[in-house]
Amino acid sequence: MTRVFNFAAGPAVLPEEVLREAAEEMLDYNGTGMSVMEMSHRSKAFEQIITEAEKDLRDLMNIPDNYKVLFLQGGASQQFAMIPMNLMKNKVADHINTGQWAKKAISEGKLYGKINVLASSEDKTFTYIPDLKDIKISDDADYVYICHNNTIYGTKFNELPETGDKLLVADMSSDILSEPVDVTKYGLIFAGVQKNIGPAGVVVVIIREDLITDNVLPGTPTMLKFKTHADNKSLYNTPPAYGIYICGKVFKWVKKLGGLEAMKKRNEEKAAILYDYLDSSKLFKGTVVKKDRSLMNVPFVTGFEELDAKFVKEAKAAGFENLKGHRTVGGMRASIYNAMPIEGVKALVEFMKNFEAENK
Ligand SMILES: *Cc1c(COP(=O)(O)O)cnc(C)c1O
User: Nearest to residue 15, comparing CAs of 251, 285, 305?
Assistant: First the structure.
């Protein structure tokens, strides 16, 4: 068996320890004589799994009691519609356009109401986070929406927009659990788990309790009401049970490593190894404005398409997988989520140095 260093943007690397544990429990979970895949979502064993997963996530993110944690399906993309359906009372939302996922949320939001784009970094291919000092939140906006970490372009919000008494909604799909978050600043946080938590098929929603009501847009399906899932503790229908089980194991793994402060330190250390090299290299360069660089997704280029392709190909042969940049950006992207070990980043930089020496 050989494990590669997997730099994929998502679905992405998971902690090896978690995968091994899951493998051991595959045929007989905790004396039940069956796999978690095979058991009733109403069983005692599964009830314990989902309850513990929620508790561990609450501990990790310091989630206050007046917020609900929901484990839903449909991926992060389903939230692009579910959020307006549930929160657009005035049918107006303010958005900040920082990339492809932000844009998808904007176009989906437009199906339900008026979307004001307060700021955008599209003029420079989303290589920075727009200045938020001068933005004017609309009086009639139901919420202000941001994509906290931009997976494709490798930027992240280091400061939040001043939203006053307006709700802040954030897509944290690609940076949840990478560093501490003050949940109280948000009305709603959501994350598809396949970047930093678990297997695709689960989306975590952290939502302030007072936002969960029956007052939703007419025609909102039962399955797309937050209230349906909150009232039933994410067990209204069959949840993505096996995925939730793996998420639970990852929460325990993050706790064991010391929680989000420790993850932040580890992620800063990992990212610095790569960014420092990019800043000193004569061949490779990072594409993002320094102050807005993501700790999770690191895009870089040589400036020559052929050389980029050669690099990706040789890197793959050497055991560094999925370094090709997103099709809309080109070049390379190394996603270095929580589960990417520091050894992987060090080895990648060594490989890049050798490539640079050979391709001067
Ligand atoms: C991957 C990603 C999405 C889309 O997730 P799906 O689960 O495939 O719908 C949305 N937002 C961000 C920031 C992402 O990284």
Answer: 251
